[in-house]
Fold this sequence. Notes:
Layout: H1 15-22, H2 36-39, H3 54-63, E1 113-116, E2 125-133, E3 138-142, E4 149-153, E5 157-158, H4 164-193, H5 204-214, H6 216-234
Antiparallel strand pairs: 1-2, 1-5, 2-3, 3-4
Helix pairs in contact: 1-6, 5-6
Amino acid sequence: xxxxxxxxxxxxxxxxxxxxxxxxxxxxxxxxxxxxxxxxxxxxxxxxxxxxxxxxxxxxxxxxxxxxxxxxxxxxxxxxxxxxxxxxxxxxxxxxxxxxxxxxxxxxxxxxxxxxxxxxxxxxxxxxxxxxxxxxxxxxxxxxxxxxxxxxxxxxxxxxxxxxxxxxxxxxxxxxxxxxxxxxxxxxxxxxxxxxxxxxxxxxxxxxxxxxxxxxxxxxxxxxxxxxxxxxxxxxxxxx
Length: 240
């Protein structure tokens, strides 16, 4: 379902406020993140392996609803915004406050055995970490005794001394942040590029489409947001 709109628990915002938020570049900053203290991990021994079997990590991630498809993007270039397909890389939403060390300061991580998932995102497997690009935070990994290496983002790389539950939280946080951003983009695209023919309410075709996908309750929420948004566009200088 491409529109995931939470039911409001507070008073509806004015049209002017909705319009301001929808066009503000600061909207992404409103994505809630856990307090920094909740992300902290005390690592007393960087050689201690808290988790060694990739299948254990995979099972832990599945408990949070994270499967291997989470890291995939469609292979086609044009994305249908009316679909539920992801169109933004998960790595864009990685919260680096979960990091347990600075790879530019310490070097113990080189040639360490890690658990990672690489293209084509089939399974989590054991790799050796070779290098890291500080500009992109891409990590180079390779299988043991292999000449083939892969560049992957930090979210696809688990160090065995890390708390696996914290690592799962890190991925889950990125997934939720991406969902929020993509749904905001879908909503803005919908409001700006679907003609209302001078009316502030959604057209009949749009109404039927959402009702088929989400039902009456969600459509009612969407209709209120849609009307307020277009009223805000039509009267940007009025304090409603």
